[in-house]
Amino acid sequence: MSNSKMKYDLPIPEDLISDHILPRLPVRSLIRFKSVCKSWLRVISSPSFVKSHLLQSLSSRTCFFVRGLPISKDIPIRTAPTYCYLYYSKNNENKLVPLDVQREFQLDLEYGRKSVVGSCNGLICFYGDGGTSVKGKFILWNPATKSSRFIETPCVEHIAKYGFGYASDIDDYLIFASFQSVYMKPIESQIQAWVFKVSGGEWNPVNDLPTDIGFYPTGVTNAIYSGDHLYWIDGDWKDSRLLSFCLSDYKFKDVKFPVGNHLRFKLHVSEGSLTLLSDSDRSPSKDLWRLVQHPSVECNSWVCIMTITRLFPRILAFSPTGKCLVQDYEETLKVLDYVSAEHRQVEGVYFDDYPIHAESHIESLVSPFDRLNV
């Protein structure tokens, strides 16, 4: 046998396949490859592989998850989906992919009024309002694996705030929810807060709530997740505050706003850090601030990373790679590189007269049940 033929007959080492080849593949391919052999099934189903694939996805397979009513030449208005992926990778630049959540993904969201709570590491969290005297439901959904989980709320009181994120210290995903009675005046209403651990499968009460936590009067709002913390803008525009909740120790903390005459704030996450868009009627521009963490000291600081004019398109979401999804005044979506000011329009797609919610999203193998259920 010739040396050239022997080279082709040499098998690929198993560790090369499991550590370097399989983690680079999309989820759909990995699900199929579970049937190739028992060793591949064992590797792809292991928690360590899910983590290595997740790390690879964070740098190469990011997209935007958009809720709205897209209208384009390829998506007739009568059959337009409510949810879609917007890919902006080099191989699939600005490709809009509709998601039929009821048929293709076997997910029933017809449970009252639905809201997007957040997206974290491939899991999307929804909340379905059950109405008066009926418990609501949270829904954890992985669109890539088509797996979903319904989680009933611990009480029937009116939900005030919620959030979804990952706690690295305990290696678990958590849902935060606070409730208050709608039949009492805000000053008399007793607030409850609970945390649901995905791996544990049960709600646990949050004790020692601050007496001035003030989950009203802003209504139901979802948190922004960043670095093991959930963040809310609490209070009205005249007397607002930035509140954080640590998913590791269940502690609340006030975070100071940037110095200046700011009247309105909008929270985002860009490049893994909490980002704040501030606005004032007295200024012709808006400032984009990033929260800088200082592990050695208790307080953090804000750094202004960009100043934009009022004519700048509405910012919907940021990606981990520095891209920004915006909506211009013609209701058209654009993917913007805010560092170089270059942008690419999502050709032929707009969201006319419909509220739009967008989240940075990745495709992963993370299970909505627990770390061992892939």
From TrEMBL:
<dbReference type="InterPro" id="IPR017451">
    <property type="entry name" value="F-box-assoc_interact_dom"/>
</dbReference>
<feature type="domain" description="F-box associated beta-propeller type 1">
    <location>
        <begin position="115"/>
        <end position="333"/>
    </location>
</feature>
<dbReference type="Pfam" id="PF00646">
    <property type="entry name" value="F-box"/>
</dbReference>
<dbReference type="InterPro" id="IPR036047">
    <property type="entry name" value="F-box-like_dom_sf"/>
</dbReference>
<protein>
    <submittedName>
        <fullName>F-box/kelch-repeat protein At3g23880-like</fullName>
    </submittedName>
</protein>
<dbReference type="Pfam" id="PF07734">
    <property type="entry name" value="FBA_1"/>
</dbReference>
<dbReference type="InterPro" id="IPR050796">
    <property type="entry name" value="SCF_F-box_component"/>
</dbReference>
<dbReference type="InterPro" id="IPR006527">
    <property type="entry name" value="F-box-assoc_dom_typ1"/>
</dbReference>
<feature type="domain" description="F-box">
    <location>
        <begin position="19"/>
        <end position="50"/>
    </location>
</feature>
<dbReference type="InterPro" id="IPR001810">
    <property type="entry name" value="F-box_dom"/>
</dbReference>
<dbReference type="InterPro" id="IPR011043">
    <property type="entry name" value="Gal_Oxase/kelch_b-propeller"/>
</dbReference>
